[in-house]
C-alpha cells in the first residue's frame, strides 16, 4: 500500500507567490534589487522554483511596512521609505 505524499506547507502556498517583476513594481525598485534582497538581507522573501525566483507577497508587504528586520546585516540597509 502506498502512503499519501504530504507536500510541505510552502509547496501548497507557492501558487500565491509573485514574480520578481511584480515584487519590483510593488516596491518601486528594480528586479535586480528584489533578487539581491533574497540573496542578502531578506532571505525569507523569495525561493527558487525550477530555477526561477518566486516572491512571498506577505513577506514583501512586511518588508515595505518596515515590520521585518534585515537578516545577516543587522538591520543595515532597510527597504526605501518611499517604497509602498
Would you give an account of this structure?
This protein has about 80 residues and is an alpha+beta fold. It has a domain at about 15-65: Multidrug-efflux Transporter Regulator, Chain: A, Domain 2 (Orthogonal Bundle), CATH 1.10.1660. The chain is built from 4 helices and 2 strands, in the order αααββα. The chain has helices at about 10-15, 20-25, 30-40, 55-65, and strands at about 45-50, 50-55. A two-stranded antiparallel ribbon has the order 1-2. β1 (about 45-50) and β2 form a beta hairpin. α2 packs across α3. The protein is globular and about 45 Å long. Residues about 70-80 have low confidence and may be disordered.
Structure in a nutshell:
The chain is α+β, with helices and mostly antiparallel strands and 84 residues long. The chain has helices at residues 9-13, 20-27, 31-39, 57-65; strands at residues 46-49, 52-55. The chain has a two-stranded antiparallel sheet.
Amino acid at each position: 500500500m502506498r502512503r499519501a505524499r504530504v507536500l510541505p506547507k510552502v509547496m501548497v502556498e507557492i501558487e500565491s507567490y509573485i514574480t520578481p517583476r511584480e515584487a519590483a513594481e510593488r516596491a518601486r525598485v528594480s528586479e535586480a534589487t528584489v533578487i539581491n534582497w533574497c540573496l542578502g538581507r531578506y532571505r525569507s522573501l523569495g525561493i527558487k522554483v525550477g530555477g526561477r525566483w518566486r516572491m512571498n507577497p506577505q513577506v514583501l508587504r512586511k518588508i515595505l511596512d518596515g515590520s521585518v528586520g534585515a537578516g545577516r546585516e543587522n538591520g543595515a540597509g532597510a527597504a526605501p521609505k518611499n517604497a509602498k
